[in-house]
Specification:
Elements lengths: L5 H12 L6 H8 L5 H12 L4 E6 L2 E6 L19 H13 L2 E2 H8 L5 H9 L3 E6 L7 E5 L1 H6 L11 H6 L5 H17 L1
Antiparallel strand pairs: 1-2, 3-5, 4-5
Length: 192
């Protein structure tokens, strides 16, 4: 077996020691601007494929994590998963698909007011963060998803969120939603 070159080893060491995912530019600060970091990352991904540790690329950042099929081995105490309320699930979905979005926009899409507690729970879970203020009167706070959200749901980026066809195929759309959608299609057909 041929040992990896110094750049691959240096990138591996930097990622291994880092407490948080790193961008390519952040890695270059450690290993030198002349280093081919992209090639080293590609080599490391190949080297770690199928092993107990994986090199993961999410939201333009790189890090090592336990392979998904091995994570159960590291859990000492069985965590009781907290179930997200329907309001929390709907709010999270709206933020993920429409970010950055204000509270008023979330309420407009849902058709009901949301309690402050709903956003607090999502922020406490680390899935939602404040994302600045909208430049309109009152300057309402906007919300967006986090890298932790992507990691928890196994997404590389928001582009990996399922589309309407994926949700329908998985049986995740309420029959009521499908009925309303059908009524809208029929109304559009009648108008033509």
């Amino acid at each position: 077996m041929i040992p990896p070159d110094d750049t691959v080893r240096a990138v591996e060491a930097v990622l291994f020691a880092s407490e948080e995912p790193l961008t390519i530019d952040a890695i270059r600060l450690h290993v030198g601007a002349q280093s081919d970091v992209r090639a080293a990352l590609g080599q490391l991904q190949q080297d770690y494929a199928g092993r107990g540790i994986a090199l993961v690329h999410r939201s333009e950042r790189w890090h090592f994590e336990t392979a998904a099929d091995m994570a159960h081995l590291l859990r000492r105490d069985r965590e009781e998963p907290r179930k997200l309320s329907r309001a929390g699930t709907e709010t999270l979905a709206i933020i993920a698909y429409h970010e950055p979005v204000t509270r008023a926009e979330i309420e407009s899409i849902r058709g009901v007011q949301i309690s402050k507690g709903t956003l607090d729970v999502l922020m406490e879970a680390g899935w939602v963060r404040p994302a600045g203020r909208r430049e309109v009167p009152g300057r309402p706070l906007m919300y967006a998803t986090t890298i932790e959200f992507l990691a928890h749901f196994g997404l590389e980026s928001r582009r990996d969120l399922p589309g309407i066809d994926d949700l329908r195929a998985a049986g995740l759309l309420d029959p009521v939603d499908l009925a309303f959608e059908q009524v809208e299609v029929e109304k559009a057909d009648e108008a033509d």
